[in-house]
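Appendix B. Raw example, untouched.
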Amino acid sequence: MIDEKVLNSEFGIKKAGAGNLTGSIGIDDQLKETFLAQTKERLSHNILAKKQVSPLLLTKKTFENSLGDIYLFLNDVDYCRDCKGSLKNCLKRTPGYFQDPFYDSDIDQIMFRLVPCKYLRRKNQVISLIVPSGGMGTYIYDKAYAFFNYINDEANRKRLMDSTIAVRDIINLSRNFKTADNNTGLSFFSFNDHSHSETVLTFACFAFANKGFSSGYINLSETFDLLSSKDYDERQIGINRIEKAKNCQSLCFENFDLLQKKYGKQLFIEYLLPLLESRTGNGKINFFSMTQDKSPEAYVHYLFYGLDQMSLAQDYAKKLSKNFVIKDLSL
């Protein structure tokens, strides 16, 4: 396959269009016949491209008018043909998109619009199920996907044996998730490198979204900073985060034990207690990353110590997860 750099040097490409269309490509006249013959040859042997382009060749001049664009379209089809399903390794200028041809009758030319490929559509579908979505959802997806690819290598699995077992358990939980029953999640603590527990937590968020479940991710320290703010808008953002977290089928609590007592008993009673209660319902599952060798239940005891609601809060937390210790060394 000839790439665009070769096309530039071999056939005297002058310019390419911009925007969502590939644009028209100018070719020096003396090279046009050679280029025309080679493009026809390539198209005749590319069944998929020919199937898409041939019905759009409506006049004698359409092919010649669309010559450069068709050539680049053939490259695009070749990239997709050789694709192994990894967006990260996509060689196109716009990874995850393919060129969709259409006929422009005003200029008698085949043009191309960019359309997301099935792998990008799948990624976007998974991200849409992560709460919050957008930038955070993309971060979680990319980090979890990269981690899963990393431990697919046998040597890396040996380096991260406990993390690999955690991933296996998470996958099994996502496969066996019961939407009409109680589900017990996992609480991760890493002895040697806290980043392992955070990485495994992001994978849990990804795994459940990948199975089609709404999957939340929340940092309670940041959320309670908002809830305790004097600014009304910031408090509303914090309240919205709590409400969304209540309704997710899967919820990941990042660094649960970094939540501080400084926020005061009233905020814990008003927001944390109802959140914990909501997470005990049927069709819910919960995951935690911890920076200390404590269970969420033990940390809830600390946060609510001395309050009338302490036993109730502990009872809620006890139902949410089982402890999982990661002993993998730092990479």
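End of appendix B.
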